[in-house]
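tool=predict chain=A
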Amino acid sequence: MEALATDGAPTEVSDRALIEVNDLKKQYMMGSEEVWALDGVTLSIEEGDYVAVMGPSGSGKSTLMNMLGCLDTPTSGTYYLRGEDVSTFSDNELAEIRNHEIGFVFQTFNLLPRVNCLRNAELPLIYAGMSKRERRERAAEALRNVGLGDRLDHRPNELSGGQRQRVATARALVNHPSLLLADEPTGNLDTETGDEIMKLLEALHRQGNTILLVTHEEHIAHHARRIIHLRDGKLELEETVGNPALAGEEISIG
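tool=predict ok
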């Protein structure tokens, strides 16, 4: 399998790649018109990598994230996650992959408003069938790891925007996923709070987590180690970030 280098030339994909995508395409019908949201994307993501995806509206960012997050299936092409071709999986198999291999952090937090942080963070473990005692322990540990060990009993409306996003991040990590997908995680936050979330992502990456960050903000993308640029459903450019930006002073988690 091959991936695109920064100059557009094909390069060999490592056998150790966590994600290998080859000639991925996704077609939608808009009335009688065919729209290719993804049009032949080939890339790889190594375990422990930190990759940002950028592009204008309609470039295919969200579609690519949906594919990699197993929320949708491609029209053609292959997607290997840990060596398995998940592009051929059934809906039930994709649900299993989402629950065990992928953690999601969304712009809008998507927290349950009537339950506390602990209950929000343990939600994926309920779907996984874990015992109440074990999932409470795992959820509390995940919240401590994002700096919210003293907020276990607080509800979302008792938290700041940055704290809510930390709860969402703890929920995404509670199953120890292979991949953390962050979709515009600072989009609903002010500059200072967004900086706080970027510090958290940097700390998680240093701990060995694989992160895919979708953003339209270039200064946010430059916190990653690689940036993938999409345009009209195609991979336009892939660049290595020589000196990744740091979000203020480092924080200690875990």
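Confidence is low (pLDDT under 50) at residues 1-14, 249-254. Helices lie at 61-68, 91-101, 117-121, 123-127, 132-145, 161-173, 191-206, 218-221.
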